[in-house]
Fold:
Amino acid sequence: MKNRLVEYISQLKKVILRLFKLTLRLLLIFSLPIMAGWWSYHHIARLGTVIDGDTITAMYQLKPVKIRLSAVNAPELYDYGHHVKQTCGQESKDELVKLLNTKWLYVQRDGDDKDRYGRFIRAVFTAKLIDVQEELINDGWAVPQYHSSRGAVYHELHQAAMEAKRGWFDRENNCKPLIAEGPKVD
Structure:
């Protein structure tokens, strides 16, 4: 009986030690961003689906919502004016799917809260803190929108993608590249 009690206490100590270590890890994970001031600007969202090259669905603030990537514009999947599918729209969407190969995202408000279609406008980062907008522009699948606070930052990446003929810039008449919007003039 005494051996079983000693064995039980030993097992209990191991479980308590494991729980303590897990608690410390969780505290560390969630306290570092707070201490850095980073957490107050970013929120966690769970990726739902990729709609097109610049729009996703996600669970954000405990609701399923559409999120429009801020500071970028990507080709549409369908050109409603000409009633045709755009090949570069599908390729841009596929690139975004590759970038977002994770369930969890960080999203940050950037400029207006919502667009005219009711989509949240957010800068999106992967769980590894990769700037999704920056990658899309650098790979030539989106162009910067300068009315966003990040738009001017992405201008050099856009120029480099055009010069290197990355993404849709290497196509010959398969799709028309979008024109980057210039800065707003008041």
Summary: Strands lie at 43-52, 55-60, 63-69, 72-73, 78-79, 84-85, 104-114, 120-126, 143-144.
